[in-house]
Specification:
Elements (H helix, E strand, L loop, with lengths): L2 H24 L4 H10 L2 H28 L6 H17 L4 H13 L3 H29 L1 H21 L1 H24 L1 H4 L3 H22 L3 H20 L13 H16 L8 H13 L4 H33 L9 H7 L4
Helix pairs in contact: 1-13, 2-14, 3-4, 3-11, 4-5, 4-14, 5-6, 6-7, 6-10, 6-12, 11-12, 12-13, 13-14
């Protein structure tokens, strides 16, 4: 099957899933109540939330700069910030395209090799997953009375299955290790022949650049600043999620712990391969607010709808503006004008 056709089918399938989830969320809702909530919401809190979002993305750009500099390249903060905004715009329209888009933007604008910048982005994502996991543990600890019974109800059947199928699981693991070892053995034997293949050379180049990007997190000089930026990114994310609670009277009593919980679950919704997390974000948000925190269904629907809509508009507008600026207005020459020199010496002269 043609790759474009395959991608189009995949996009339609996940878009349909998002629409289905939206229908499930809204099918039994009294829209007159939702309209009332939307009309009476205090949007100044949502505006402050978007300011926090913009600031968190700026710190994300600053953090990315540190990783890029550790590879021996230079870039302007404005370029990385605009690239990040373009990436979020791309993810809103086409899931999983954002990371590729921001690396491609940086390649075109600053002559930074795509494979290396992609490695730094993946390093960022791995670290963000660690932070998200740590936040999830804190949420579970602070809200064990609320979430404990649910978590144990999920884990107990899983543990029972693992115990009951221990032998089968061990055999699968041994088989996987043996297969991996066989692939490595064959690869080493045929490496000389493979190295002459153009496709292999291209894949090897991408892989090496990816590894350089991953290593950048360990070789960077500004580790302390990197950690501070990471804390600021997630700190502003938490505040960004907390402030909109004050939009509606029914959610105004929720605090930072609830914001962290919503942030963690909402991130899962955004990670899902659905355009802009549409449907998935709504489903998770309503389930949490209505099912766990006792917010009325109409208020919960209104809250997630306003949140998702305003953030989507933010990403679309800032992404479009950044694209115009970076490719049509900003005429500055790339900082890394001679990438071959950088490749050879590992630094910008």
């Amino acid at each position: 099957m043609n790759k474009k056709v395959s991608n189009a089918i995949t996009y339609i399938v996940f878009l349909s899933l998002g629409i289905l989830l939206l229908w499930l969320c809204f099918r039994k809702i009294d829209f007159s109540q939702v309209v009332t909530y939307i009309k009476t919401a205090k949007y100044s809190w949502m505006l402050l939330s978007l300011v926090c979002l913009a600031i968190s993305l700026f710190f994300r750009a600053l953090r990315w700069n540190i990783l890029i500099e550790s590879l021996g390249y230079k870039t302007r903060v404005s370029t990385t910030y605009e690239s990040v905004l373009i990436a979020y715009f791309a993810n809103t329209v086409f899931p999983r395209l954002g990371e590729v888009t921001r690396c491609g933007t940086l390649t075109k604008k600053e002559n930074i090799p795509f494979d290396k910048s992609l490695g730094t982005v993946i390093s960022e994502r791995v670290l963000d997953l660690v932070v998200l996991f740590a936040m999830a543990l804190l949420v579970i600890l602070f809200q064990w009375n609320l979430l404990g019974s649910l978590i144990t109800s999920w884990l107990n059947p899983l543990i029972e299955k693992i115990v009951n199928n221990a032998v089968l699981g061990a055999l699968i693991i041994v088989a996987a290790i043996a297969l991996f070892a066989a692939i490595i053995f064959i690869f080493k034997k045929k490496k000389h022949l493979l190295s002459q293949n153009k496709l292999y050379q291209k894949v090897a180049s991408l892989w090496n650049g990816f590894l350089d990007g991953i290593k950048s997190i360990f070789t960077m000089k500004k580790k302390g600043l990197f950690i501070i930026y990471t804390l600021l990114i997630w700190g502003f994310y938490v505040v960004m999620t907390w402030l909109p609670f004050y939009m509606l009277p029914e959610t105004s009593h929720l605090g930072l712990t609830e914001a962290i919980t919503l942030l963690g679950l909402a991130t899962l919704g955004v990670v899902a391969p659905v355009p802009g997390g549409m449907g998935v974000y709504h489903f998770i948000g309503i389930l949490l607010l209505n099912g766990f925190y006792g917010i009325s269904e109409s208020a919960a629907v209104s809250f997630v709808t306003i949140n998702h809509a305003t953030q989507t508009i933010f990403y679309l507008i800032t992404g479009c503006i950044s694209y115009v600026i970076i490719f049509f207005i900003d005429r500055r020459l790339p900082i890394n004008s001679d990438t071959s020199h950088v490749e050879a010496h590992g630094r910008v002269s």
